[in-house]
Amino acid sequence: MAYEELNSFGCLDLNEDSRANLLFEIAWEVVNKVGGIYTVIKTKAGVTCEELGDCYCLVGPYNENAVKPK
Fold first, then answer.
1. pLDDT of residue 25
2. Which residues contact residue 35 at a Cβ distance below 8 angstroms, ignoring those fewer than 6 apart?
3. pTM, whole model, 2 decimals?
4. 51, 4, 42: which is closest to 23 by C-alpha?
5. Which pLDDT does position 14 carry in this prediction?
6. Cα atoms found within 13 Å of the Cα of residue 64, Cβ hemisphere only
């Protein structure tokens, strides 16, 4: 995303600590969808999305098997 697009979400407005309000969570389990870590990420994602909205992004490797419709 470009700076202007992120800024339109309010993600780049500096808070009282002079830090941008962005959170990127990077993990293999984002696409693997098995095991305890995936369960933690899945559970936490709902609450974090409510708090940060479009300023929260989960990142994982591309797994073609995970994106194919069954």
1. 86
2. 29
3. 0.58
4. 51
5. 56
6. 0
Rounded to whole angstroms, the Cα distance separating 39 from 41 reads 6
Query: What tokens were used for 62?
Result: 């591309």
Who contacts 31 (Cβ-Cβ below 8 Å, separation ≥6)? 60, 61, 62, 63, 66
Tokens standing for 16? 């009282």
Provide the 3-class DSSP secondary structure of residue 14: coil
What pLDDT digit, counting tens, does each position of 9-39 carry?
666 665 555 556 788 888 888 777 777 888 8
Please state whether 50 falls in left (phi above 0), alpha (psi between -120 and 50) or beta: alpha
The pLDDT of residue 2 is 56
What six digits make up the tokens of 52?
């940060």
Nearest to 1 by CA among 63, 56, 61, 66: 56
Please answer whether residues 29 and 35 qualify as being in contact, where contact means their C-beta atoms are separated by less than 8 angstroms. Answer: yes
